[in-house]
Amino acid sequence: MAGGPYAAIYATLLWHHKVLALSDDDRLAAFGFYCACCAYCQVNRTDGFLAYAQLVAVFPCTDDERKRYTSALTAVRLFDDVDGGIEVHDYLDHNSSRQQIENGRKGMSDGGRKGGIASGETRRRQPLKPTLEGSAEQSSTEQSSTEQKCAVEEEVRADSEQARFPSEARTHYRSPHDDAGSLDGFPEIEW
Q1: In sequence order, which ranges of the chain are alpha helices (DSSP H)?
Q2: pLDDT tens across 94-136, in order?
Q3: What pairs with residue 88 in β-bridges?
Q4: From CA 56, how far away is CA 84, in angstroms rounded?
């Protein structure tokens, strides 16, 4: 998913002593719940805070499981219990804050706008490049020279065709439309 938001989670977190301190029965599900909470915080730019009511939207599980995972992650200090919800421990040490993301996007937008304006000004100052057909300012001598080359090429093509198909052979074939009365619309062929 190029360009989408992401939450920073160390690749070795699965073997961190805090994760290994979780019970064997809940370790995998609690770890998944932790990762889902980190992703939710990043997508919604909550700076690591999740209200208790928001936890329902994070991960598909029962209320009892959600409470059990939250308690277990708080006990090993991957979550901090705060007023009105939980906070992912040290979230802002490893992820960008809402303010940093918005400032970064604004900076990129402003930079893109300034770059576009500068590019347009540069293109306006440059002279026009000639097209394949030639520029509008092409002199009449250049045009007549081009016309002469085309006429010579047409003559060469005609001579070449004459050599391949002698004139007597070409005149033997007639269109059915040349003579309405000839052989019921079939061309007249002389051998």
Answers
A1: 17-20, 27-44, 55-58, 63-75, 91-94, 98-125, 140-164, 167-170
A2: 787 777 767 766 666 666 766 777 777 777 777 766 667 655 5
A3: 79
A4: 14
Query: Rounded to two decimals, what is the model's pTM?
Result: 0.53
Q: At what angle do helices 63-75 and 27-44 cross, to 10 degrees?
A: 90
Residue keyed to tokens 């705060």 = 82
On whether the CB atoms of residues 91 and 48 are closer than 8 A, the answer is: yes
Closest CA to 91 of 46, 142, 155: 46
- Report DSSP letters for 28-55, one per residue: HHHHHHHHHHHHHHHHHT-TTEEEGGGH
Measured CA to CA, the distance from residue 70 to residue 85 in angstroms comes to 10
As a whole number of angstroms, the distance between CA 10 and CA 142 comes to 69
| Longest CA span, the chain | 107
Nearest alpha-carbon partner for 55 in 73, 35, 70: 70
Q: Which two tokens stand for residue 120?
A: 């347009």
Supply 11's token pair. 């690749």
CA angle 128, 132, 136 (to 5 degrees): 50
How do beta strands 85-88 and 79-82 pair? Answer: antiparallel
